[in-house]
Design brief:
It comes from Phaeomoniella chlamydospora. There is one protein chain. By secondary structure, the protein is α/β, with parallel strands linked by helices. It has 5 domains: 2-253, 3-Layer(aba) Sandwich (Glutaredoxin), CATH 3.40.30; 283-383, Glutaredoxin, CATH 3.40.30; 386-489, Glutaredoxin, CATH 3.40.30; 509-658, no CATH class; 706-763, no CATH class. 40% of the residues lie in helices and 15% in strands. Strands 3-7-4-8-9 form a 5-stranded mixed sheet. A hairpin with a 2-residue loop joins strand 18 and strand 19. Helix 1 packs across helix 9.
Length: 763
């Protein structure tokens, strides 16, 4: 028996290094080194890989040198974990909990790496790296770490939502998440269960004696402090050990070294759920079925909330049924009767009928477009295709040929899962407005002059507009990003429709071109002139804004220098604290649009007096004040010409306008509208005027009441008062009546001798 053991030992020493666990060439930073480091780039990873073999980064446990734990690189993830068992800590270098658990994780790794699985104890004389009796080779079980800040896509892929998260993989596939307490005992208990499953009976019955976190050694020949109450298959463990040793002997004495071909990564199975809308019908949903089918699933739904008595709902019903039939096998279509399910509709905040929502994964967006079948189908299919796709320069160029507005998100290897999660939240809000894609293309980054990542911009007809937020909090602020998107998601010259009319018209001056398809050449020329005018105006306004902002900055710098010259510290602090907060949208902006004059002929004629049969026209509309301009300074109609348009805009937007406006409403309606505008713009003056009017009205009605008092019908005769003879007038002025005339408010009736000398008494 001793000779057999000696042979095995000798065979282990002579075993070809190729049979040992391969040393990965990836970044091998220890957990302690990873804590506090910024996102890893590829140059840092390469340097880390070069240091893997250095003695400085190694540690010693129980007298055995331990190489640094593998910090897995994102681009080598699949290659690294495709074989064997991998217990991986997903962490962030900036996470306090990750820093606290780092010594525990490192000690756990060192303890198991140096353990001898055959004798279930640590042996200082064991040559771990060259022996198939090593822990790694016996169990094919490895420890590693993944930086979720540097490689957020992988963490997101495995649904890592908190740090640190410990996940167990088998041949590249996630099999289990550790959910116990994050201490050495609990994590070791988890590992012991997995090792026992890999090699039944190979683990000590009561569990191993564990070191303290941060320790560099542990006694292995003593029982554990807290024995594990689990039965072990001792016979199975012996059999497994003998089989393993036979394999070693065969490999050591073989005439030719045979290397097993590496196992290919298992094919990733695409997630396949039930086919949506299998019957091609609109599903009637109750509160219970809504919760089961919609709320708790990731399946997209297009749902109509209605009331049976609603005339608009009745008109929509056939179209909605046809929509469900058209979307058979593509998209779930449903409906909720708000008379039967009032609580559900209240929770959904339904305020009118019919209301249509597209819902997916707990998020929703309301459909506010036209209710024709074609419009609903177009919206539904664009909603199903709303995922953020990854594009390169060639794919983006193809998109630009068909899409007027494209949001482009630039990312790099350090972009985190939180950034991508915030990006995905935006997709539903963009349905029906614009496409959003992401890229890490260096060609596109060079084209759009991107120097920081992540970065968001919108390309409208090839013209970029950048989201100004750069900080992580600004890039992940859903409301702030969406507000910016809403301000730029329209094309430079959009078509005015019923669904976007309020968005285009309200709060802006709108240069509106009335164009007709009946004259194709003039239509194309008119659109081209409108777009050229819009681009030229935008360039001009951008230059003026930058000039104005620079002037304010120069003025601030001048104040600082002046205070510094006078050594006036107070003035210097005030000058430095002065902030330049000017923004382009502080002023009422000018937008450009065109309208189909054939389709909206009646509206154009009744509102603006435009007869499209006489040619294309342009008007500048101010919807907020119900007014418009349709002539130039010379009195000629504004035409789709950049010269005509650009010469007229400055005279319209000046305060007050230099051109006379026309009203879009009648004279009586305009009178009350002007009063309403005056009150909204001059609230204090309006309140003072109202108070004075109330006082004067009260005084007037009191005078009328006193005038018709029967007991006072003979009052008001002439009398000789202390100021001489006075005659009261039956008519008199208002002030006269008020301060002493007939029935005056300050006339003292029935008093003798005080203001009269004749002793006359009122009858």
């Amino acid at each position: 028996m001793k000779s057999t053991l000696l042979l095995w030992t000798f065979a282990s020493v002579l075993a070809v290094p190729g049979f040992a666990a391969p040393q990965e060439e990836g970044s091998a930073l220890s957990v302690e080194e990873a804590i506090g480091k910024p996102a890893v780039d590829k140059s840092t990873s390469a340097l880390s890989a070069a240091d893997d073999t250095s003695d400085d980064s190694s540690t010693v446990f129980n007298g055995i040198k331990v190489p640094p734990m593998l910090d897995i690189e994102g681009d080598k993830w699949d290659e690294t974990v495709k074989e064997g068992w991998w217990f991986v800590k997903h962490y962030s270098p900036y996470c306090g909990h990750c820093a606290a658990i780092a010594p525990t994780w490192q000690t756990l790794y060192e303890f198991y790496y140096t353990s001898s699985p055959i004798q279930s104890q640590t042996k200082a004389e064991q040559s771990t790296e060259s022996s198939l009796n090593s822990f790694d080779n016996f169990y094919d079980f490895h420890f590693g770490s993944l930086n979720c800040i540097a490689y957020g896509e992988i963490c997101e892929k495995h649904d890592v939502k908190a740090w640190p998260t410990f996940l167990l993989y088998k041949d590249g596939v996630l099999v289990e998440k550790f959910t116990g307490k994050k201490n050495l005992q609990e994590i070791s208990h988890f590992v012991e269960e997995k090792l026992e499953g890999i090699r039944p009976g190979s683990r000590p019955k009561d569990g191993p004696k564990l070191p303290e976190a941060g320790a560099t050694s542990v006694e292995t020949d003593v029982p554990p402090d807290n024995p594990l109450a689990k039965d072990k298959d001792a016979a199975g463990g012996v059999a497994a050990a003998e089989k393993h040793m036979e394999k070693i002997a065969e490999q050591a004495t073989g005439a030719e070294e045979k290397l097993e071909a590496p196992k290919s990564a298992p094919p990733k199975k695409e997630k396949t759920g039930p086919t949506p809308n299998q019957q091609g019908t609109s599903v009637s949903l109750t509160a219970e079925s809504f919760q089961k089918l919609v709320t708790t699933t990731e399946e997209p739904w297009f749902i109509k909330f209605y009331a049976p008595w609603c005339a608009h709902c009745q008109a929509l019903a056939p179209t909605w049924d046809q929509l469900a039939k058209e979307l058979k096998g593509e998209l779930n279509v449903g409906e909720v009767n708000c008379d039967a399910e009032p609580r559900l509709c209240k929770d959904a905040k339904i305020k009118g009928f019919p209301t249509m929502y597209f819902l997916r994964g707990g998020e929703r967006v309301e459909y506010e477009g036209l209710r024709g079948l074609g419009d609903l189908l177009k919206y539904s299919r664009s909603a199903m295709d709303s995922d953020v796709k990854d594009v390169d320069a060639a794919q983006f160029k193809e998109m630009e040929e068909t899409e007027e507005v494209i949001f482009l998100y630039f990312y790099d290897h350090a972009t985190t899962s939180e950034d991508f999660a915030a990006l995905d939240r935006l997709t539903l809000s963009l349905i029906g407005h614009a496409k959003i894609v992401k890229t890490n293309s260096a060609v596109l980054a060079d084209r759009f002059k991107i120097s920081t990542w992540p970065r968001l911009l919108v390309s409208r007809d090839g013209r970029p507009t950048y989201y100004t937020g750069l900080a992580p909090s600004e890039m992940r602020d859903f409301r702030q990003v969406l507000t910016w998107m809403q301000s730029v998601w329209l094309p430079i010259v959009p078509e005015l429709t019923a669904s976007n009319a309020r968005e285009i018209m309200d709060g802006h001056y709108v240069v509106l071109g009335a164009l007709t398809h009946s004259r194709p050449d003039e239509f194309k020329q008119g659109k081209r002139e409108l777009k050229n005018a819009a681009l030229e105006w935008m360039d001009k306004q951008t230059q003026l804004f930058q000039l104005e902002r620079q002037e304010l900055r120069d003025a601030k710098q001048l104040r600082i220098e002046e205070a510094d010259d006078r050594n006036d510290q107070r003035a210097l602090r005030q000058a430095k604290s002065r902030r330049i907060t000017i923004r382009e949208d502080d002023r009422k902006q000018v937008r450009f649009a065109w309208v189909d004059a054939d389709f909206w002929e009646r509206w154009l004629k009744t509102t603006f007096g435009i007869d499209v049969q006489k040619g294309e026209r342009v008007i500048i509309n101010d919807q907020d004040n119900r007014r418009y301009w349709d002539t130039t300074e010379s009195g000629a109609f504004i035409t789709p010409s950049r010269t005509s348009i650009l010469e007229t805009i400055p005279k319209v937007i000046s305060s007050p306008p230099k051109l006379r406006a026309k009203s879009t409403i009648g004279a009586i309606e305009n009178f009350f509208f002007q009063i309403k505008n005056f009150i909204s713009r001059h609230k204090i003056i309006a309140i003072i005027t109202l108070v004075i009017s109330v006082i004067v009205g009260l005084l007037y009605f009191r005078r009328k009441l006193l005038q018709y008092d029967p007991e006072r019908k003979h009052r008001g005769h002439a009398s000789n008062g202390i100021l001489g003879e006075k005659t009261t007038s039956t008519g008199g002025s208002f002030l006269g009546n008020l301060f002493g005339g007939k029935n005056g408010y300050f006339h003292l009736d029935g008093k003798e001798g005080l203001l009269s000398s004749g002793g006359a008494k009122a009858d």
